Please model this.
Amino acid sequence: MYVCICHGVTEKDIKKAAKAGAQSLQDIKQATGCATGCGTCADVALEVLQNANDNVTPDFLKILQPKSKWQEQATA
Ligand code: FES
Model:
């Protein structure tokens, strides 16, 4: 999933940078270039970074992911 369209930075790129030691939006900017263009991706990039070490899917991505089989059965 692309987080930054200006620089083609993905969620995976941000998680990789976090794993390499990025701890702030500034670190992500330096490591990936994310949020150094129009800047509209900054909040999302920060949310991905904050969740990176917890391996938690950020809320903004949950709505884009297909439902699991049990979720489909629960709503049927
Ligand atoms: S979308 Fe990331 S800087 Fe524009």
Notes: The chain has one domain: 2-75. The domain at 2-75 is CATH 1.10.10.1100 (Arc Repressor Mutant, subunit A). The pocket of FE2/S2 (inorganic) cluster is lined by residues 4-7, 34-41 (CB under 6 Å). The mean pLDDT is 84.
